[in-house]
């Protein structure tokens, strides 16, 4: 379903999960158990993880959308002989799970994607989030001029640290503005080429479009730590995968 006028400034749905699979493999985790809700984004998440982990997982758990009680899943994880847990539970599901996980006493490294560990969610999770590692296309402490300007301006305007959603929205606006400086939207061919060039300073660092107009970009790893104010916050610890590209681009013949 690719189209010449379609541009994605965020990510293909597997990317952050696949990057964490690659990171955990490189870190030496040999027996992960993986968990996500049973809906398309959840199945995408686990498929993406397995694609770049390139090893066997000890189990896959599919939860219900909107689930609030994870006692059964935590019991399965406890009995799984896994050496690590990767999960995708966005929003309130992740908050509920992490609070129950902390009280369960299970001692196992936690990994996920930024969708369960953005700056708003980890404040709600509290101390249970400390030590978890997550992948993101962006981090607020990335050292580049565009990002420093963005984070400072966002904090001044909204009195909080931005999330990856704000970062990709900001990049989208700047992409469109960069194209408008080059071509008028009435000239569709010229405007499309101006968008494809992606001639703007991204807050995430290097950014370019692949042949299907999905990003080719680095995916970063962050760890949740206790901030100077005593609240959980993400700290950049490295790059999971450089220049990641979705696995479907060859199916797009533009």
Automatic annotation (TrEMBL):
List the keywords (alphabetical).
Answer: Signal
Domain Leucine-binding protein: from-to ranges: 2-227
Q: Which Pfam families match?
A: Peripla_BP_6
What InterPro entries does this protein's entry cite? BCAA_transport (IPR051010), Leu-bd (IPR028081), Peripla_BP_I (IPR028082)
Q: Which PANTHER family match?
A: LEUCINE-SPECIFIC-BINDING PROTEIN, PERIPLASMIC BINDING PROTEIN OF ABC TRANSPORTER FOR NATURAL AMINO ACIDS
- What family name appears in the similarity comment? Belongs to the leucine-binding protein family.
> Which protein, by its recorded name, is this?
Leucine-binding protein domain-containing protein
The organism's taxonomic lineage, starting at the top:
Bacteria, Pseudomonadati, Pseudomonadota, Gammaproteobacteria, Oceanospirillales
